[in-house]
C-alpha cells in the first residue's frame, strides 16, 4: 500500500512526520500527504473522508495551509452518523473561524443538529456554535439555544449556557431573552450547570443594566444561600479539592456577588454575613483555600461596606504577605495597593511586613513592595520609613539600587518636614548610591541648599566630610564641589556651626585639595571637571593667598582634549591672572534660586510669570517661604540656542529671565514674519507651559527660527522700550478688523461679568481719558459668592503683544465671605481699532490653608474699547 494513500492511518502519518530529521524532509512528507488528500477530495471519497480531515487537522496544527479541506468539514457535518459529525465539527472549530464566509453554509446544519433527538449530537452543535459563532449565526440560532437552556440533560443545559455567553457577547441586544432562563438555572443542584449559569449571569450584568437590576432584586438572596451552603457543606468526594468543597463554584459565586454588590448598599447588606463566614472559615494552608480568600477580599473591597469587613480583608492580605509562596505574596501586594485608597489606616498596620518584602530575594516582590511603601508614606511616618529604606539601600542589590534610590528621593522631596532633615537624607542617599540618582535630584538639592541660608555652613561641612569617604559617587562629588566653591569661606572659618555638629579644622589648602582630587580622578566626567574648574575660580577670589596654586591647577586643563575644559581653563586662567579687578564681581555668591520655578519646570508646568498685583508670601516645598514679587519669569517657557542680538542692558536682563528667548531689534528682524494660519486660540494656553504655539517663519539668512514671547507680559511697571519690537504671536488670530474708533472718547461702556465660577465673580468697569482712546482704565471688582474667607488673594493676567497691561495693588489680599475686593488695571492697545482686547487671567487664593487656583479667558470686551 502507498504509505501516503487515503487509506493511511493518522498514526502512520504522524510517525512518518516525526521520523523526519530536517525541516525539508517534513515539508516533503506534508506535501505528499496533502496531494493525496486533494486527490481524495476530487474523487469525492466518502470512505476515508473522516480520516483525511483528521490528518488535515494535524497538518494545520503544524502550521501548514489546509484551506482546501474546509468544504470537507461541511460534508461530514451533514452526514447522519455521530462519528462523522464529531470529526466534522472538530474540523470546523479548528480550521475555520467566524470571519470565513463559508461558515454561513453551516448555519442550517447547526439548526438541524440543535433540534436533533440525539443529545450528543446536540452537544456537538452547541460546542461548535459556542466557539465560532458570528453575529449573524447568533441571531439566527439564539431561539434554539434559549430553548435548550431548559433541556432535560444537565450536560446539554451546561453547554447551552456556555453557548449563550458567546451569543450575548456577539449580539448584546439579545441579552434580555436570556434573563428569565438564567434565573431558573441559578436554582440548579448540578454544580456544572450552576457554574455556567453564574458565568452567564455575570456576563448579562456586564452587557445590560436592566439585567443587573433584575438579578440584584431577584437573585442576590438565592446566590448568597448557594454560597453559604457551599461553605458549610459536608465532605463530598465528587466536588472536594484539598478538603474544600468545590472551590471553583465558590470563586464564581464570589465574583457574581462582587458585581451585584458594587454600588448597591441593599445588595451588599445581604452578602455581609456570608462573606464574613468565607473569610473566617476557609483554610489558608492550601492553594484552593487561598484562591477563595483572595476572591473574597476582592469582593469585600468592591461592595458597599461600612469598614468592618474591609479590616478583616486587609488582615487576610497581611497573612498572605507571610506566606512562603511568592505568587501569593505578590497578589497580596497588588491587592494592598488597591486597598490603600479605601482604608489606608488598616494597611498601615502591616507596614513592617511590607518593609520586609522590600528586602525579599525575589525582584518582582521587591519592586511591588517598594511601590506600596511609596504609597504608604505620609507626613507622620516619613522619617522612620525613609530611615528603613536608606538603611536597606546600603545592602541592597546593585540592580535594585536604581529603583530604590528614585523612590527614596521622591519621598524625601515630597514629604520632608524640615530642610536640615531633607539635606541629611539626600546626602545619605548620594553617599550610598550617588551614581544611580538622576541629575534632577542633585540639581534640586542645590536649589534647596541655596534657599537654606542658615544651613550653608552645616551643609558645606557635611559635604566636605562626605567627599572624603564617598568620592567614587559622582553626584555627591558634584554637589560638594559646587558648595565648596560657593561657601568655601564658611567651611574654613567654621561659620554657622549648629549644636549638633562637631567642629572640624579645614584649611584653605584642604578645601582646594578636595577639588583637585575630584578633577584629577580618572572616573570624573566632563560635567564634574567643569564644575571643579568653576569652583576653583570662585575660590581664587575667596582664598586670595592660594590664587597661584589655583591658577596652576586650572592651567593643567589647557591641553585637555575636551574643548569645554580647554576653553574654561584658558578663560579662567586669564581672569585669575589678568583681570583681578573683575574677578570678585564675577564670582559673587549665587543669589537664592527660585525653588518654585525649578519645581514647576521639573513637573513640566512652569508657573506663569505674569502681572502680580502685590508682593505676597508663598509656601514653597521643603519649607521655604518665597516672596512673590519677581519682575518676570518665563511665561511660555520658550528657549532657543542663539543669543538675542540687542545692545540694551534691560533687554539682556529680560533675555536671561526668559531663558534664551530671541528678543531682536527691528534692524535685526529684517525678514517678514507671519504666523502660521490656524484656528487655534493661542491665548488658551498662555498660562500653561508646553502648549503648542503658532510656528513663526522668517527669512533670516541662517535659516534659524527666532521665537519671540509676548511683548507685554504685564508687570508692576511697563517693560523697557527695548522689548517693543517683539513679534505679535496672535497676528492672524484676532477678530475681523473693525473701523478705527471715532475721535470722540465721550461714550461710556457697560460693565461686564469678566469671569464667574461657583465661588467668585469678577466684574469689569471701563473708562477712558479724553484724547487717549487707546488707553482703557479698568476697575476690577472681585466678589466672594461664599461665606468662606479667602486669604493670600492674588490676581494675575496675561495679554498679547499688541497690548500693554499695568496692574495696581488690590485693595486687600483677604476676601471675606460675601465681601469684595477692587483692583485697577490700565490697558494700552497699540492697535486700537484693529484688534479687540483679550486677556487670560489666573486667580489664586487660600481656603482653609489649601491653595486654590482658578483660570479663565476674557474675550467679551466691548468691541470699540
From TrEMBL:
<protein>
    <submittedName>
        <fullName>Uncharacterized protein</fullName>
    </submittedName>
</protein>
Amino acid at each position: 500500500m502507498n504509505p501516503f494513500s487515503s487509506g493511511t492511518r493518522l498514526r502512520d502519518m504522524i510517525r512518518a512526520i516525526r521520523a523526519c530529521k530536517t525541516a525539508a524532509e517534513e515539508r516533503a512528507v506534508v506535501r505528499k500527504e496533502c496531494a493525496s488528500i486533494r486527490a481524495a477530495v476530487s474523487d469525492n471519497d466518502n470512505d476515508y473522508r473522516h480520516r483525511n480531515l483528521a490528518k488535515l487537522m494535524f497538518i494545520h496544527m503544524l502550521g501548514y495551509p489546509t484551506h482546501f479541506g474546509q468544504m470537507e468539514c461541511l460534508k461530514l457535518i451533514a452526514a447522519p452518523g455521530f462519528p462523522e459529525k464529531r470529526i466534522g465539527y472538530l474540523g470546523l472549530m479548528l480550521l475555520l473561524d467566524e470571519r470565513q464566509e463559508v461558515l454561513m453554509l453551516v448555519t442550517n446544519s447547526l439548526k438541524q443538529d440543535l433540534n436533533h433527538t440525539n443529545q450528543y449530537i446536540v452537544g456537538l452543535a452547541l460546542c461548535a456554535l459556542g466557539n465560532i459563532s458570528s453575529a449573524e449565526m447568533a441571531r439566527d440560532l439564539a431561539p434554539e439555544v434559549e430553548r435548550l437552556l431548559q433541556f432535560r440533560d444537565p450536560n446539554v443545559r451546561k453547554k447551552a449556557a456556555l453557548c449563550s455567553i458567546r451569543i450575548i457577547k456577539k449580539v448584546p441586544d439579545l441579552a434580555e431573552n436570556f434573563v428569565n432562563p438564567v434565573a431558573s438555572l441559578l436554582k440548579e443542584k448540578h454544580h456544572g450547570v450552576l457554574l455556567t449559569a453564574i458565568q452567564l449571569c455575570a456576563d448579562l450584568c456586564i452587557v445590560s443594566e436592566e439585567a443587573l437590576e433584575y438579578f440584584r432584586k431577584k437573585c442576590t438572596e438565592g446566590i448568597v444561600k448557594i454560597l453559604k451552603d457551599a461553605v458549610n457543606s459536608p465532605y463530598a468526594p465528587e466536588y472536594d479539592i484539598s478538603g474544600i468543597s468545590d472551590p471553583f463554584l465558590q470563586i464564581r459565586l464570589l465574583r457574581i456577588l462582587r458585581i451585584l454588590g458594587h454600588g448597591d448598599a441593599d445588595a451588599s447588606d445581604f452578602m455581609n454575613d456570608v462573606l464574613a463566614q468565607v473569610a473566617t472559615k476557609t483554610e489558608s494552608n492550601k492553594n484552593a483555600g487561598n484562591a477563595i480568600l483572595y476572591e473574597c477580599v476582592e469582593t469585600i473591597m468592591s461592595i458597599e461596606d461600612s469598614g468592618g469587613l474591609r479590616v478583616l480583608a486587609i488582615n487576610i492580605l497581611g497573612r498572605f504577605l507571610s506566606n512562603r509562596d511568592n505568587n501569593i505574596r505578590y497578589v497580596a501586594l497588588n491587592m494592598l495597593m488597591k486597598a490603600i485608597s479605601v482604608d489606608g489606616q488598616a494597611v498601615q498596620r502591616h507596614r513592617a511586613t511590607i518593609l520586609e518584602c522590600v528586602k525579599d530575594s525575589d525582584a518582582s516582590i521587591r519592586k511591588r513592595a517598594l511601590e506600596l511603601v511609596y504609597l504608604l508614606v505620609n507626613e507622620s511616618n516619613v522619617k522612620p520609613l525613609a530611615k528603613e529604606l536608606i538603611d536597606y539601600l546600603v545592602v541592597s542589590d546593585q540592580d535594585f539600587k536604581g529603583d530604590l534610590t528614585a523612590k527614596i528621593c521622591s519621598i524625601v522631596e515630597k514629604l520632608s518636614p524640615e530642610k536640615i532633615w531633607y539635606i541629611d537624607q539626600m546626602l545619605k542617599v548620594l553617599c550610598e548610591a550617588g551614581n544611580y540618582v538622576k541629575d534632577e535630584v542633585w540639581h534640586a538639592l542645590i536649589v534647596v541648599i541655596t534657599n537654606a541660608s542658615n544651613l550653608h555652613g552645616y551643609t558645606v561641612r557635611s559635604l566636605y566630610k562626605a567627599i572624603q569617604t564617598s568620592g567614587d559617587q559622582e553626584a555627591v562629588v558634584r554637589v560638594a564641589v559646587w558648595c565648596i566653591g560657593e561657601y568655601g569661606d564658611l567651611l574654613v572659618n567654621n561659620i554657622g556651626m549648629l549644636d549638633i555638629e562637631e567642629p572640624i579644622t579645614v584649611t584653605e589648602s584642604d578645601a582646594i585639595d578636595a577639588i583637585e582630587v575630584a578633577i584629577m580622578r580618572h572616573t570624573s566626567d566632563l560635567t564634574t571637571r567643569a564644575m571643579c574648574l568653576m569652583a576653583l575660580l570662585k575660590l581664587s577670589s575667596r582664598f586670595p593667598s592660594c590664587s597661584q596654586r589655583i591658577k596652576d591647577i586650572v592651567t593643567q586643563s589647557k591641553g585637555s582634549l575636551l574643548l569645554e575644559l580647554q576653553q574654561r581653563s584658558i578663560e579662567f586662567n586669564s581672569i585669575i591672572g589678568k583681570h583681578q579687578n573683575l574677578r570678585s564681581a564675577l564670582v559673587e555668591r549665587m543669589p537664592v534660586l527660585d525653588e518654585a520655578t525649578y519645581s514647576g519646570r521639573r513637573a513640566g508646568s512652569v508657573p506663569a510669570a505674569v502681572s502680580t498685583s502685590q508682593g505676597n508670601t508663598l509656601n514653597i516645598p521643603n519649607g521655604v517661604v518665597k516672596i512673590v514679587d519677581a519682575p518676570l519669569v518665563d511665561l511660555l517657557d520658550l528657549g532657543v540656542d542663539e543669543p538675542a542680538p540687542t545692545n540694551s542692558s534691560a533687554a539682556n536682563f529680560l533675555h536671561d529671565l526668559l531663558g534664551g528667548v530671541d528678543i531682536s531689534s527691528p534692524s535685526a528682524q529684517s525678514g517678514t514674519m507671519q504666523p502660521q494660519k490656524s484656528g487655534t486660540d493661542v491665548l488658551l494656553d498662555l498660562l500653561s507651559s508646553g502648549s503648542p504655539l503658532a510656528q513663526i517663519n522668517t527669512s533670516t539668512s541662517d535659516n534659524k527660527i527666532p521665537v519671540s514671547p509676548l511683548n507685554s507680559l504685564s508687570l508692576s511697571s511697563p517693560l523697557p522700550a527695548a522689548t517693543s519690537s517683539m513679534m505679535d504671536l496672535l497676528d492672524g488670530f484676532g477678530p475681523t478688523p473693525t473701523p478705527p474708533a471715532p475721535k470722540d472718547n465721550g461714550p461710556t461702556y457697560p460693565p461686564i461679568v469678566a469671569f464667574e465660577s461657583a465661588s467668585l465673580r469678577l466684574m469689569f468697569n471701563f473708562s477712558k481719558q479724553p484724547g487717549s482712546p487707546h488707553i482703557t482704565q479698568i476697575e476690577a471688582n472681585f466678589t466672594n459668592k461664599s461665606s468662606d474667607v479667602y486669604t493670600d488673594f492674588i490676581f494675575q493676567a496675561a495679554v498679547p503683544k499688541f497690548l500693554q497691561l499695568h496692574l495696581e495693588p488690590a485693595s486687600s489680599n483677604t476676601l471675606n465671605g460675601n465681601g469684595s475686593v477692587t483692583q485697577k488695571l490700565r490697558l494700552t492697545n497699540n492697535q486700537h481699532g484693529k484688534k479687540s482686547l483679550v486677556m487670560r487671567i489666573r486667580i489664586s487664593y487660600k481656603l482653609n490653608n489649601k491653595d486654590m487656583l482658578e483660570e479663565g479667558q476674557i474675550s467679551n470686551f466691548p468691541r470699540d474699547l
